[in-house]
Amino acid sequence: MSELIPGQPGAPAAESRAGAPADGSGLMVRAEQVHKSFGSLEVLKGIDLEVRAGEVCCLLGPSGSGKSTFLRCINHLEKINAGSIRVDGDLIGYRERGGRLHEMREKEVAAQRRAIGMVFQRFNLFPHMTVLGNVVEAPVLLGREKKAAARERAAQLLERVGLGDKLGAYPGQLSGGQQQRVAIARALAMRPKLMLFDEPTSALDPELVGEVLDVMKDLARDGMTMIVVTHEIGFAREVGDTLVFMDGGVVVEAGDPREVIANPQHERTRAFLAKVL
Amino acid sequence: MESHDTSTVRARPEPLRAVPVRHPGRWVAVAVLAVLVAMFVHLLVTNAAFNWSFMADKMFRPPIIEGLLRGTVLMTVSAMLIGVTLGVVVAVMRLSDNPILRGVAWLYTWFFRAVPRLVLLAVFGNIGILWSRIEFGVPFDTQLGQLFGIDNLNLRLFGFSSRDILTGFMAGLLGLALSEAAYMAEIVRAGIQSVDEGQTEAAQALGMSRGQLLRRVVLPQAMRVIIPPTGNETIAMLKDTSLLLYVPVSVELFFQLDAVGKRTFQIFPMYVAACLWYLFLTSILLVGQYFLERHFGKGYGPAGRARLRLRGMAAETGGGGNSGTVGPA
């Protein structure tokens, strides 16, 4: 188990280079005034967010509030229009040189993403590869590990998410919950220092939600830094270190999950919680 | 398999015995068809212009078989190989972020899809008129040389006589392959675009570059969409080798049959022979296409997915695996 703890030691030093000003503060993610528009539609209107290393941050909010978009900005699947996002001290998608911002090349962005795992609502497993193939693919292709070592580790990871007997199965043969657990193992195979979950249980049958949440709880207990977009209030209350409530592209309220859920300060939060609880 | 109906145990009712619906229209159709077939057979047997014995004698002659093997089969295979490879390249260019590559790819497909194949082949067959030698090197070298007072400056790197290379088979191959690449590019592009966006995002999130995710994730999945129309293209290509008559390519099936017909004034029997040869060859390809499509359709579509899941469930319960209900793939 301890071998699998995906803390900083696992990540190569090359990726957390350049002084890392935020390191001393223990911040894994630091977003400042993040703005994002799709055409004339402004989806994010200045998001500030800080997530400490080892923390679980739950993003909550009605659909269209921008929480998924914000999550996708963190690994640069979406380009932000203003503000900045730093992961482990490194600016995402840009480099500061001589007081000016330079857009990163595709290869550099790809390198940054390797340290950030992501789990999608619709799993997005590669349907033409076996379960083991899905998990082994990236570490081997990107030269992280030799094939044999990667297979062994992938088998361990799949064992950990409770799918040790499904190595040779194809995603189409698995239930939604099983697929999502494979997706988590696939992300972990890159030894990320941060995991992003984009509504990981929203596409699942109610009876399958539990098995995925259990894996995520296990991950949180091991000290993984996680940002989770979710509608699972119970999960936020139990595992979350912070809860951020978003609406209309801004952070309405943030704080200790138990506090916010029991005693929301804003009318909007109260109305939303009343509906989902 | 039987449902466990514990509440009531009722005897299974007897199968229904009902008078089936009659189809008198089908009998009428059979009668009409029978007459038409008889008329057609009558034509084949009694019309002397078919000259069957002459046709049977000529259609297996060595030059014709050589034309079939080289000009039709080898040409189809080579043109499709080049066409598919180049088509993938053009499709990837067309979908690239680079606007210049995108433009070049668009121009390429526009040109080669807009000019008819027959015309294209005639052009390639006569390209020797344009250049007697084809050379590669610094453009405007002679003119630039004159500018600096050097007479006959020659900066050509290499070249060849177009009469040696760009005639007959090679000209025909080039014309067919380049034209095919344009059509294949559109097919490959449709295939790539048919792959769910989430696949690209998942691969990107893992840190793959565009080239890596295309090669490992997107293209393998696009094959399911690309393969069936590629089969159609291959069949069309086989038939289009007959257009090589206008390059002209002499080692080619239709050229040879046509030549025999014109030389002996027995044109019609040789055209019938051409029909029979092409029917035979495309039928072989059709069989191949059927199996190819069945193979690549595996695990997809409602039926395929259900089959996969059933097999998974059977394996899980330790049941009989591929039982009769699952059936062969």
From TrEMBL, chain A:
It catalyses: a polar amino acid(out) + ATP + H2O = a polar amino acid(in) + ADP + phosphate + H(+). Its main location: membrane. It is a peripheral membrane protein. GO terms for cellular component: plasma membrane. Residues 1-22 are annotated as: Disordered. Gene3D superfamilies: P-loop containing nucleotide triphosphate hydrolases (3.40.50.300). Residues 29-273 form the ABC transporter domain. Belongs to the ABC transporter superfamily. This is ABC-type polar-amino-acid transporter.
UniProtKB/TrEMBL annotation, chain B:
It comes from the Bacteria. It is found in: Cell membrane; Membrane. Pfam families: BPD_transp_1. One of its GO terms (biological process) is amino acid transport. Residues 69-289 form the ABC transmembrane type-1 domain. Its main location: membrane. The chain crosses the membrane at residues 27-52, 72-93, 105-131, 271-292. GO terms for cellular component: plasma membrane. Keywords: Amino-acid transport, Membrane, Transmembrane, Transmembrane helix, Transport. InterPro entries: ArtM/GltK/GlnP/TcyL/YhdX-like, MetI-like, MetI-like_sf. It is a multi-pass membrane protein. Belongs to the binding-protein-dependent transport system permease family. This is Amino acid ABC transporter membrane protein, PAAT family. It comes from Micromonospora matsumotoense.
